[in-house]
Amino acid sequence: MTVFWPYICLAILCILLVWLSVVDLRTGYLPDPLQAALAVSGLIIAIVGSPVGVSWVSGLAGAAVNGGIFWALRWLVTRMKGREAMGLGDVKLVAAGGLWLGPWGLAYIMAAGGLLTLLGAGIVGLVTRKPVWQGEMPLGPGLAVGILGTFVAALLHISWLNLTPISPG
Questions:
Q1: Could you point out which of 3, 11, 30, 72 has its C-alpha 20 to 30 Å from the C-alpha of 81?
Q2: Do the Cβ atoms of 45 and 164 come closer than 8 Å?
Q3: Strand, helix or coil for residue 54
Q4: Model-level pTM greater than 0.85?
Q5: How far is CA 50 from the centre of its chain?
Q6: CA 11/CA 112 separation, integer angstroms
C-alpha cells in the first residue's frame, strides 16, 4: 500500500459521511444510494487492506452485528413508544459503519452518536428556541461523527481503541 492509503480511505469516509449528514439534517432521511456507496467502499477497503486493521471477515461481521443490534434497538424502542423510534436509515448507517470498523467499533459509534446527537439537538433547540426536526432528532449526523471519530482514533493508534479481536494465547 502507498503511504497515502490511510488518507485516501479517510477522505472517502469523510466525504460520504458529511454528505449523508447534510442530507439527514435537511430532510430527515439517509438516502440508500449514499448508504450503498458507504457500504461498498468500506467492504472494498477491508478486502484491499484497511488501514485500521479491519479484515473483510471482521467487516462483514461488523455489518451483521451492528445492523442486528441497531435493528433490535429500533424494534424495542418503537414497541415501547408506540411509534417509530428511529428510521431504518440509521440502522443501515451503523451496519455500513461496521464494514469500516468491524463489530468492535459499535460501542464507540453508539456512545459518540448518542451524546453528539443530544448535544447538537440541545444547542440547536437553545439557539432557535424550538424543537429540532419537528420534535425528532436526526441521529444520522451523530452516528456519522461516531464512525468517523472511531476511524480516526484507530488510524492514530489510540491505546484504548482496538478494532481487531484479541487472539487467545
A1: 30
A2: no
A3: coil
A4: yes
A5: 16
A6: 20
- Rounded Cα–Cα distance for residues 106 and 124 (Å): 26
Range 99-130 burial, b when 16+ CB lie within 10 A, else e = bbbbbbbbebbbebbeebbeebbeebeeeeee
The terminus-to-terminus CA distance of the chain in angstroms comes to 29
* Rounded Cα–Cα distance for residues 29 and 136 (Å): 12
Cell of 124: 440547536
Q: Which residues does the chain have with pLDDT short of 70?
A: 1, 131-136, 164-169
Radius of gyration, alpha carbons of the chain: 16
Q: What is the separation of C-alpha 124 from the centre of its chain, rounded to a whole number of angstroms?
A: 22
State the Cα–Cα distance between residues 8 and 76, nearest whole angstrom. 38
Check: CB of residue 148 under 8 Å from CB of residue 101: no
Q: How far apart are CA 95 and CA 93, in angstroms?
A: 5
Amino acid at 142: G
| DSSP 8-state secondary structure symbol assigned to residue 137 | -
> Which amino acid belongs to residue 91?
V
Residue located via cell numbers 468492535: 104
- Which DSSP category does 104 fall into? G
